[in-house]
Amino acid sequence: MVVNMPGGGKVSGDAEREARARFVEQFAMLLSDAGMQRMPARVFAYVLASDAETHTAAELADGLRVSAAAISGAVRPLVDMGILVRDRAPGDRVDHYRVYGDDVWSTLIGRQEPMYRHIDVLFTEGLKTLSPGAGRRRIHETREFYRFVHAEFDTLTRRWRERRAGVSESPEPARAAPGE
Amino acid sequence: MVVNMPGGGKVSGDAEREARARFVEQFAMLLSDAGMQRMPARVFAYVLASDAETHTAAELADGLRVSAAAISGAVRPLVDMGILVRDRAPGDRVDHYRVYGDDVWSTLIGRQEPMYRHIDVLFTEGLKTLSPGAGRRRIHETREFYRFVHAEFDTLTRRWRERRAGVSESPEPARAAPGE
DNA sequence: CACACTCTTCACAGTTTTGTGAATTGATTT
DNA sequence: AAATCAATTCACAAAACTGTGAAGAGTGTG
């Protein structure tokens, strides 16, 4: 890794940028495998991995090598989901996007709430029509499972917040990379 | 199979089958929204909601109204994931599929293990190249989040098993189905 | 050994997604 | 009011998915 090359070299800004871009793509791929759509995933990964706190659409388009139109489309679901916030200062002509809240993952867990509600009604409705039998038993069990997971969210979130307070103070000793 | 009501028979077997089929589709849609591919999701939902313990490919094809080829393709990822098991008794010509284990959801949680491992190496690698800054901090935090969730799995699974033992005994009294 | 039957693979067609460039809308500045 | 600049929308092309029918491979049966 490009840390301290001999011959007066230091961390090349280009190399660092490129490494970051690669990481963003891999991260996005992960999210995409997990069901998130491709462009939203890329935008999300990019925003998370960037040092800037806010991003203009132009910057996203440039950083991800796609058209402004693609950004427009990708950003909407993220804003809908409440993951990104669109800010525009009065008298500014450009939108500024930033991640909502300072604890993204707690936010994200919270956003699942409606889905769990939806699941519950679907299964409850289903159980009304299913006649007794192994299938019905499994579906009932599935509803209980989702209820259980849903109910565990509070605990989980609280514990995460505690843990987060502990770890995010020391983002791993910054390897002495002066220069730049 | 069909409840067989006397006389004018209220619960039509057909109606029940149809309701079940509808439920299967909705359930599959849910899974599909959550990132599972459509056909595997349909097969999984079907298998879960059916009373039969095992299913032949032909039965799945018939029940889901798709070709045998589609079943073949849909079943592979499920078997790979370890959700379905393919059995064939010696001297039998057809495969029998059934859900692996009696506690599907514990199984399913367990299957996520490799993914979390993958995530960890990806983020750890990424952190090696990211220079200090807000982006690095967020990525670090994200790795910690996934580690946290992963670590919670054991607890979660154990608690689910406890709860399951409590609820699956009483799959909800079959309603006395008073006139529709 | 040939048949019968099931599962799988393959090429293909229909459908959905995805991202682009161009046109449009909306707002600010001059 | 005209000009300018950013964001969104639209029609379209390219790519990816899905599911099908038909051919192929593997196995028990008569």
CATH fold-level label of the largest domain in chain A: Arc Repressor Mutant, subunit A
Known CATH architecture of the largest domain in chain A: Orthogonal Bundle
How many separate helices of chain A? 7
Rg result of chain A: 22 Å
Whole-number mean pLDDT of chain A:
85
CATH class of the largest domain in chain A: Mainly Alpha
- Identify low-pLDDT runs of chain A: 1-10, 173-180
Largest interface: A-B, 62 and 60 residues
Q: Can you put this structure into words, describing what you see?
A:
The structure is a homodimer of 180-residue chains. By secondary structure, chain A is mainly alpha-helical. The first copy, chain A, folds into two domains: 1-100, Arc Repressor Mutant, subunit A; 102-170. Chain A is built from seven helices and three strands, in the order ααβααββααα. Chain A has a three-stranded antiparallel sheet. In chain A, α1 crosses α2 (38-49), α2 (38-49) crosses α4 and α3 (57-64) packs across α4 (68-81). At the A-B interface, α1, α6 and α7 of A face α1, α6 and α7 of B. The first copy, chain A, binds a DNA duplex (30 and 30 nucleotides) through residues 37-39, 56-58, 66-73, 76, 91-95.
Summarize the structure.
Two copies of one chain form a homodimer. Chain A is mainly alpha-helical and 180 residues long.
Supply the key terms.
homodimer, 180 residues, Arc Repressor Mutant, subunit A, 2 domains, three-stranded antiparallel sheet, 7 helices, disordered C terminus, DNA-binding
List the helices and strands and how they pair.
The structure is a homodimer of 180-residue chains.
Chain A: H1 13-33, H2 38-49, E1 55-56, H3 57-64, H4 68-81, E2 84-87, E3 96-99, H5 104-111, H6 113-129, H7 134-167
Antiparallel strand pairs in A: 1-3, 2-3
The first copy, chain A, binds a DNA duplex (30 and 30 nucleotides) through residues 37-39, 56-58, 66-73, 76, 91-95.
